[in-house]
Amino acid sequence: MAAVPRAGLTTERLVRAGADLADEVGFDQVTVSALARRFDVKVASLYSHLKNSQDLRTRIALLALEELADRAADALAGRAGRDALAAFADVYRDYARAHPGRYAAARLRLDPETAAASAGVRQAQMMRAILRGYDLPEPDQTHAVRLLGSVFHGYVSLELAGGFSHSSPDPQDTWAWILDHLDTLLRGRPAS
Amino acid sequence: MAAVPRAGLTTERLVRAGADLADEVGFDQVTVSALARRFDVKVASLYSHLKNSQDLRTRIALLALEELADRAADALAGRAGRDALAAFADVYRDYARAHPGRYAAARLRLDPETAAASAGVRQAQMMRAILRGYDLPEPDQTHAVRLLGSVFHGYVSLELAGGFSHSSPDPQDTWAWILDHLDTLLRGRPAS
DNA sequence: GCGCTTTCCTAAAATTCTTAGGCAACCTCC
DNA sequence: GGAGGTTGCCTAAGAATTTTAGGAAAGCGC
C-alpha cells in the first residue's frame, strides 16, 4: 500500500499559514476550507488543531498582536521623545501596509479576558513608556495614550482602505505632518 | 385557495431591515438568509431585489454613509470653529454608539467609483468647511482633514471595540480632552 | 513486536449563497 | 369585467463552508 505521509499539521503552522492567507486574500476570506486546501488535507483534519473557525481567527489576531508588539519593542530600543514616537508609529503603518490581513486580524474584537492576555497589553505599556518622555501628569497621560492609539489606528485604517489614494499631498507627507503636530501637542508648545 | 398575501419587499425596505439587523447582531452576521427570516419569506425571493450578498452589504454601507452625512449636516448648521468641530465629532461618536452595525458597515471597503458616488464625499466636504474656520493654508488643510478623519474614526472604532471600557478616566473626558487639543493644534497655539 | 497516542481520514448534517424556472397575484387596457 | 402582460414570491437544486462522530493507520515508548 502506498504510504500516506503525514502533512505535519500543528496549530502553530496552521495559524501562521492562516495569517499568510489573510495577507493574500483578506482576513474575512480566511476560511477553514481554504486553509485545508493550502495544506492539501481534508477540512475535518484541521479540527484536531483548531476548536473552530472563530478559534482560527482569534489565533491569527493574537499572532498579529505579538508580531506588532515585537516590532515595536525593537524599534523603541534606545529611542526617546519624538524619535520614539515616530518609530512606534512607523511600525504600525509599515506593518499594516506589509501585512494588511494580519493588521485587520489585529483589529478583531476579542473577548475581554483574551484581550487582557494578549500582546495588546504590551503595546499599551510601550505607549506609556514613550509618553513618559513627555512628562504628562495623569489623567493627561491616559488621554494621550488614547489619542495616540486613535490616530495611529485611524490613519492606518483609512490609508489601508484606500481613503488617501490618488490624492495629493502624498500620504507620507501627511504622516510626517501628523507626527510633528502630535509631538508638539504633547510638549504643550505651539507648532512651527 | 387561501390568498397568499405579498410581503411587500422592496430593495429599500430590505436594506433598512439589513441595517437594523446589523445593529442588533453585528455587521458581519448580516446574511441574506437572516434577512429572509426576518421578513418570513424564502431566501430566493430576496434575489429579485438584491444582486447578491455583497450587494446587500454595499447598500447598507451607503445607507449608513448617507445617514451620517445627514446628521453631520444638521449638526453643523449655524456653527463654526470649535463648536462645529465638536458637533461634527459628536455626530460620529453618537452614531457609532447608537448604530454599531451601521457604523461598521460605513467602514466597508467600497470600490473607488462607488465610493466617489457615496455620501462619504459630502462628509469630506463638511470637514473642509469646518477647517475653513481655522484658516489653514494648503497643504495643511488636507493634512488636517486626514488627521481629523483618523482621530474620529480611530477613537470611535477603539471605543466601540471595547478598548476603553472599565478603565478610568471616563472616555467622555478623554473625548473632550482630545477635541480641546485638536482645536488648539489647528489654531496653532498652545493648549491651556 | 505490542499497545497507545496522535494524525488524518470518511461520512454526514446544518447553514448559506445563488441560479433557474413556475405559478399566482396585480395592473392595464379594451 | 375579462385578457394579457408584468411582478412577486415560490419550489427545486447545486455548490461551498462549518462542524461533529467515529475509524484506520502511522509513529512512539517499552
From TrEMBL, chains A, B:
DNA-binding interval(s): 31-50
Record carries keyword Ubl conjugation: no
UniProt keywords, alphabetically: DNA-binding, Transcription, Transcription regulation
GO MF term (any one): DNA-binding transcription factor activity
Xref: Pfam families: TetR_C_33, TetR_N
Domain HTH tetR-type: 8-68
Keyword Transcription regulation (UniProt): yes
InterPro entries xref list: Homeodomain-like_sf (IPR009057), HTH-type_TetR-like_transc_reg (IPR050109), HTH_TetR (IPR001647), MT1864/Rv1816-like_C (IPR025996), Tet_transcr_reg_TetR-rel_C_sf (IPR036271)
Protein name per Swiss-Prot or TrEMBL: TetR family transcriptional regulator
Organism: Streptomyces spiralis
